[in-house]
Amino acid sequence: MSLRRSTDRKTANLVSPNGKTPKIANSFGLPAGRAYSCPGATATCQRVCYAGRLEHGKGVREFVARNLDQLIEQDRAGMAELLAEMLTDFRTDCERARSKGATVPLAFRIHWDGDFFSLPYAQAWADVIGANPDIRFWVYTRSFDPATLDVLPALGGLPNLTVYLSVDPDNIAAAEQARRRHPWVGWAYLAETFTAGREVLADQPGKRYPCPENGGRIPLISGKGSACIRCGICPSGRGDVIFSISKR
How far is Cα 30 from Cα 197, in angstroms, rounded to an integer? Predict the structure, then answer.
């Protein structure tokens, strides 16, 4: 058994010389939706979920479903072992590229698709994140409401992990309560427009940034690298981020 990493043009830590293709798989996905790995899915996110749309691509659904099928058969220790093996392969790919002179940050995006589906699963991720302190991890999650599933207590105290609550008008009250309990989390707020998002976040603490790729200010991927690695806001957790459904 082995989990499969994904290549993601937006998050890639190494791209091809022509700036079009990710060279290292540095993200991980599960199938989206309440029936699968997203117990905190809202009506808004189900309406616009980009990852769910990508699952319609050839073989994508089977690819991420295989990951979930393997994980749900395991307890916390078993899931941690599978995740650790996957990250060992990721590290090997990075070291191989570095040996050839490439500049490769150890950056890993958790859940380009899907979410934390159980507390033991989140705890397993915390185990392997803690065991890999030189890898920078970042994740967006809707699993922060005690009424459904709250994994935030399992993910606190990890300096190499940035956690963003995926927030929209449907779950903002739960997000406000979660931030009071866990002030270290960031918000990734999804609004119809950037202006609407700024208005909602005006009273929130700290800085806020419109996603530059979502707003068309930097490309998804180019010869200069992927959007997330070039921008660096989400991996570093410098502040809240606004995403616009309309991209304006």
Answer: 27
Residues in the chain: 248
The DSSP bridge partners found for residue 162 are 138
CB atoms within 10 A of CB 121: 25
Q: Which residues pair with 15 in a beta bridge?
A: 22
Which residues on adjacent β-strands are paired with residue 164? 140, 186
Domains held by the chain: number: 1
E strand or H helix at 159: none
Contacts of 17 (CB under 8 A, 6+ apart): 223
Task: For 165-201, give one letter per residue: b (16+ CB within 10 A) or e.
Answer: bbbbebbeebbeebbeebeebbbbbbbeebebbeebb
pLDDT in tens, the chain (248 residues): 899 999 999 999 999 999 999 999 999 999 999 999 999 999 999 999 988 888 878 799 999 999 999 999 999 999 999 999 999 999 999 999 999 999 999 999 999 999 999 999 999 999 999 999 999 999 999 999 999 999 999 999 999 999 999 999 999 999 999 999 999 999 999 999 999 999 999 999 999 999 999 999 999 999 999 999 999 999 999 999 999 999 99
Give the range of the structural domain holding residue 203, as residue numbers without chain letter: 5-244
Nearest to 128, CA basis, from 76, 164, 75 = 76
Structure tokens at 246: 């309309």
**What does the alpha-carbon distance between residue 96 and residue 101 come to, in Å, rounded to a whole number?**
9
Beta-carbon contacts of residue 38 (< 8 Å; ≥ 6 apart): 32, 45, 114, 115, 117, 142, 143
